[in-house]
Amino acid sequence: MSQSEAPLCLPPKPLGALPRLPDGACDSHFHVFEAGAPLASPRSYTPQILTIADWQLYAEAAGIARGVLVQPSVYGLDNSVMLRAIASDPQRLRGIAVVAPDISAEALRELDAAGVRGIRINTRNKAGVALDAVGELLGKVAALGWSVQFQVRAEQLADVAALEHGETPLVLDHLGFIRFGEADTGTRLDALRHLLDRPNIYTKISAPYRLTASADYTDVGAAITALAASHPHRLLWGSDWPHTELWDKMPEDGDLLSAYETWLPDAQVRRQIFVDTPTSLFFGR
């Protein structure tokens, strides 16, 4: 598949001085890649090869203690790059895998032993697992205490709301991909708030650059501040490093981290979002 069909992402900007996150902070959403690993075809993008060693440099600069790798769509159902990354630092890392609906219980147990703590449903990218697979997968992952993570379009929040998930944690990537500054933004935010009212539903307050045309993400930041006031126990932070699917503008990591300091001024709330909630969800064992 040519890069014109699946364009090459921009690389992240060189690391400068970064604000330090709360002690014990967890990056709940990042991706890594590996030279020579087969890429899915078709796919939505071609990644820069940024490895777990590259993320570790970012983590060291920001004071990140732990991380949760999320299987990127470009590897389809082949979780091996992610699993090798976890194996390089198994005390510090966990993973969110992409699996087929008919995966066996034995295969899931093997992933669990390797540090996987959830599965990903992705309706926004080619090579992702569709929403209609959830019904078959929920019972399988519930037995392991895993979460189900959703990269869905904002109009699919109602579909997530309709799921019968018992006590299985459901996690929405990137504020449910609500587009800020559009006519339906308020309605979508209300739908997200209603979801967060339920036990065991969470959202990542990550990737503001994907959600708005505002250069400084002011509208996204205002929503994050409001959600932190109403639902602090339902929020997770993730870097979305290395910021895939960007082709014309790349954010500065320092600017992003500084923005969260502004949006989340309360130290106790910041600790809940950056440390306590991800520790509970992903590092209980």
From TrEMBL:
Taking every annotated instance into account, which residue ranges of this chain make up the domain Amidohydrolase-related? 26-282
> What is the recorded name of this protein?
Amidohydrolase family protein
User: Which organism is this entry from?
Assistant: Devosia neptuniae
Upper lineage is: Bacteria, Pseudomonadati, Pseudomonadota, Alphaproteobacteria, Hyphomicrobiales
